[in-house]
Amino acid sequence: MGDYETILLDRSGRVGLITLNRPKALNALNSAVMREVIDAVAGLDADPGIGAIVVTGSEKAFAAGADIKEMADLGFADVHGRETFSGWDALTRARTPIIAAVAGYALGGGCELAMMCDMIIAADTAKFGQPEITLGVIPGMGGSQRLTRAVGKAKAMDLCLTGRQMGADEAERAGLVARVVPAAELLDTAMAAAGTIAGMAKTTAIMAKDAVNAAFETTLAEGVKTERRIFYSTFATDDQTEGMAAFIAKRKPEFNKS
Ligand SMILES: CCCCCCCCCCCCC/C=C/C(=O)SCCNC(=O)CCNC(=O)[C@H](O)C(C)(C)COP(=O)(O)OP(=O)(O)OC[C@H]1O[C@@H](n2cnc3c(N)ncnc32)[C@H](O)[C@@H]1OP(=O)(O)O
């Protein structure tokens, strides 16, 4: 699947798997990686046969950040408004639920990429951080915004100002990570979770993702209204009819048949 140089693209049933594949550079995110990840996600997202996507890296690194060697000689005019930096936003426009399966380093742009996904499942070896300040820059892919919303000001400020790394258990306690598993079980756990999501009605999964994400974008009152509008909409779908009929008939629902 796909003819890529910096990522591997696989598929297992209704789950698409993207593996960042620049192991010698600890999966540093350069322009090629960004183009290829965005292209692969777009293709999976448009495929009605795909119900969930997993993005992962290597044992040592999910991604150790944006590619410092590619950025070192850039100046303001090179980066200001450059698609290369804002291009990652396309990931947050995907409708299909995306799980980041993180082992090892998820630093800078690597942590930001994981946070652009809908949930993070971490190996006990995972190390998260926004060490950009040590390079004389700050996060530039939403890290200061998503991290603060995920873990709160105190810990986000700590990580962005000190550049320190946060281990998997601290990340789970702080609310950045959904689950922590032994490293050897990471991919199986993430693929199983993705398989469960992909077994749900894709329309309903998209609606649930939109409702949760609305909490990031608005007030509680507005978020509750948004949720209610989406909840009402589920009763216009065949999925609600099938889901509730299946429960009453004591059988498994058959979603995504068409
Ligand atoms: C114009 C295009 C730019 C790219 C755009 C694409 C997308 C990016 C979007 C924009 C993002 C904006 C905001 C984000 C900024 C950042 O992410 S800045 C980088 C933040 N990350 C870091 O500061 C971590 C840097 N790495 C390290 O501190 C260490 O490597 C480590 C993770 C602690 C591991 O140490 P160690 O085990 O000792 O391994 P090393 O020898 O250091 O590394 C192995 C090789 O990997 C190379 N490498 C590691 N990280 C990067 C990196 N971020 N960029 C480039 N290369 C990296 C390292 O240089 C080694 O390579 P060799 O020396 O050739 O062996």
Automatic annotation (TrEMBL):
Keyword check for Secreted: no
Lipid metabolism in keyword set: yes
UniProt keyword list: Fatty acid metabolism, Lipid metabolism, Lyase
Catalytically driven reaction(s): a 4-saturated-(3S)-3-hydroxyacyl-CoA = a (3E)-enoyl-CoA + H2O; a (3S)-3-hydroxyacyl-CoA = a (2E)-enoyl-CoA + H2O
Enzyme nomenclature, EC number: 4.2.1.17
Pfam name, any one: ECH_1
GO BP annotations, alphabetical order: fatty acid beta-oxidation
Molecular function in Gene Ontology: 3-hydroxyacyl-CoA dehydratase activity
Top-level taxon: Bacteria
Cited SUPFAM superfamilies: ClpP/crotonase (SSF52096)
Family: Belongs to the enoyl-CoA hydratase/isomerase family.
Function: Could possibly oxidize fatty acids using specific components.
Protein name: Probable enoyl-CoA hydratase echA8
Native organism: Tomitella fengzijianii
